[in-house]
Every structure is written in structure tokens, then in C-alpha cells.
Write a structure and sequence with these properties.
Largest sheet: 6 strands, mixed
Mean pLDDT: 85
Order of helices and strands: HHHHHHEEEEHEHEHHH
Distance between the termini: 22 Å
Radius of gyration: 20 Å
Low-confidence stretches: none
Number of helices: 11
């Protein structure tokens, strides 16, 4: 049972280190001596920070140094912590995939074959500042958020999510990319799934190709001007089961502060997004293992 922040870090470290030894350590060919604070410890710190909702690195490290120094006696300074976290982007993603593989095996059948695809906006500059010179120029772009009828400047995080809430795959792209443009990339290596999308994912040729080559069904509601309409009951069912994406998006935005990520560059943004998605997967694993909801983990650190 996770009763406090120390328990959370202990569970996370054991899980992270086990998966690290399986998926990352065999591929580690870096020269020189090992760092005093191991990769497993540093990634544990990163996941713990995301799960308790503390985005500011200085604040989080100060909290750990002040209250839990025994857990991390060789805690790095903030600048080194930030630099190593960026260097471990690929390792963090491998650990996320390793935890996901463990969790995939314990999901109920209906939680594995039914998936939802959608995107969540990741603004990086206030819209009224985006027209001037800034550090994101040439990397981020303008885009629309149809659900809110708003314009934004930044990126969109495209997600493929199982009905259980497990994030299976993702892609980060400039916000001017329409939702449907990355569907093929997200689904190219998947098979035997039923994937639900909104009207932005309507693409007849792609849907036919996915069905023929991957035995994958991409279902979307039909536009009102389309000749062939789906049965009303099926459209209602699609809209009902797509509600899981709203839950996951809400978790990423509110608990994991996806839209207030404090990134100063694309590499920093990618490191933060990878950490948030890995933390979400680890939190879901702890939820299945221990019955501790994601939201409850935020109460473990009082700063």
C-alpha cells in the first residue's frame, strides 16, 4: 500500500529498475564510469515529480533534498538533473514501453482490443505573442482546437489510447497538422484493433487499407452531408466509448500539467512529454497493482 511519498518512490524505483535492467541496460554502451545517481534513480525522480504534480524542477528537488535525502543521498543539482533527463529521453520511452507491456498482459479483454485516437493541444507561446520573434519560431505553428473553437500556437500530442486508459502510442507534431494526418503513423504497426475517432479522422481510403492490411477497424461518426450514414445506435456507441479520451486528456492537462510544461526548447518539451506519458503509464500500473488511483498520488507530497 502506498501511504506516503517515500512509499511511492520505493515502488517506482523497484518497478523502474526492474524494467531498466530488461530493456535499457543491455543496450548501454556509454564510455566512462557510471554516474553517482543511477539512471534508474533519476528516472524515478522524474516519474515521482510528474505523479505528484510538481512541474518546477527546483521546487521538487528542494523538497526531496529537505525531506527525503535518505532515499536519494546522491541527488544531482538542478542543471545536471535537467541535462541528464534530456539525455535519457529514449531510455524513458523504453521504460514506458516495458511497463506498458507488463500492464497489457493483465488488462481485461475489452480493455485491449477497443482503442480511441485523438489529440490534445500543447501550446508553447501565448497566442498574442506568437506573431513576434521567439525561440519556438520555425518549430511550433498555429493550429485550431475545434472542441473549444480556439486558435493556439504550439504542438498537438496525438494519442492512441486503449479503452482501459493505457496510452499505447503517441506522436508530437506542430499544431497545424490536422488530426487525421498522423493516423497512418499511429496505426501502421497495430493489428486486430477497433479504433474509434471523431469526424476529423474520416478517411475512406485509409480506413479500407487498414482493414485489408492490418485487420484494423477505424470507426468514426459520419458527417451530416455524407450519403451513407451509420446506424444511430452505432454513432451513439462510438461517442460513448470515446469518453475515455476526455478522461486521459484531463489527467494529462490537470494532473500532469501538459499545457504548462515550462519547456524552453523542442528537446526540453520532448523530455517533459516523455516523462509525463511514462508517469501516466506507471501510475496506471500502480493503480492496477495496488488500487491507488492516479489522482490520489497528488496528495502524497505537501510542499
Amino acid at each position: 500500500m502506498i501511504a506516503d511519498f517515500a512509499d511511492l518512490c520505493t515502488y517506482l524505483y523497484v518497478l523502474t529498475d526492474e524494467v531498466y535492467r530488461e530493456v535499457a541496460a543491455p543496450h548501454d554502451t556509454r564510455p566512462g564510469p557510471d554516474a553517482a545517481c543511477t539512471d534508474s534513480e533519476l528516472i524515478t525522480l522524474t516519474l515521482a515529480a510528474e505523479l505528484v504534480g510538481i512541474a518546477a524542477e527546483t521546487r521538487f528537488l528542494a523538497y526531496v533534498r529537505r525531506n527525503h535525502r535518505a532515499l536519494f543521498p546522491l541527488l544531482p543539482e538542478r542543471s545536471r538533473y535537467n541535462r541528464r533527463r534530456r539525455q535519457l529521453i529514449e531510455v524513458t520511452n523504453r521504460i514506458r514501453s516495458g511497463i506498458m507491456a507488463r500492464l497489457w498482459g493483465v488488462l481485461e479483454a475489452e480493455g485491449r482490443d477497443l482503442c480511441v485516437v485523438d489529440s490534445v493541444p500543447v501550446p508553447v507561446v501565448g497566442y498574442h505573442h506568437a506573431a513576434g520573434d521567439h525561440r519556438w519560431w520555425g518549430e511550433a505553428d498555429f493550429g485550431r482546437v475545434p472542441s473549444k473553437k480556439q486558435r493556439m500556437y504550439g504542438f498537438k500530442l496525438h494519442l492512441l489510447i486503449a479503452h482501459s486508459g493505457l496510452i499505447l502510442d503517441f506522436a508530437l507534431a506542430p499544431a497545424n497538422h490536422n488530426d487525421g494526418t498522423l493516423t497512418a503513423q499511429l496505426l501502421a504497426d497495430k493489428a486486430g484493433l477497433t479504433v474509434l475517432g471523431d469526424k476529423g479522422y474520416i478517411n475512406g481510403p485509409l480506413q479500407d487499407d487498414l482493414a485489408a492490411r492490418h485487420d484494423l477497424t477505424l470507426l468514426t461518426p459520419r458527417r451530416s452531408n455524407q450519403r451513407d450514414q451509420l446506424p444511430a445506435a452505432l454513432t451513439q456507441a462510438i461517442n460513448h466509448f470515446r469518453q475515455i479520451i476526455e478522461t486521459v486528456n484531463s489527467q494529462l492537462v490537470e494532473q500532469f500539467q501538459l499545457q504548462r510544461n515550462r519547456a524552453k526548447s523542442v528537446s526540453g518539451l520532448c523530455a517533459r512529454v516523455q516523462a509525463k506519458l511514462a508517469a501516466h503509464t506507471a501510475g496506471l500500473y500502480l493503480n492496477y497493482l495496488l488500487g491507488r488511483p492516479l489522482r490520489a498520488l497528488m496528495d502524497l507530497a505537501v510542499i
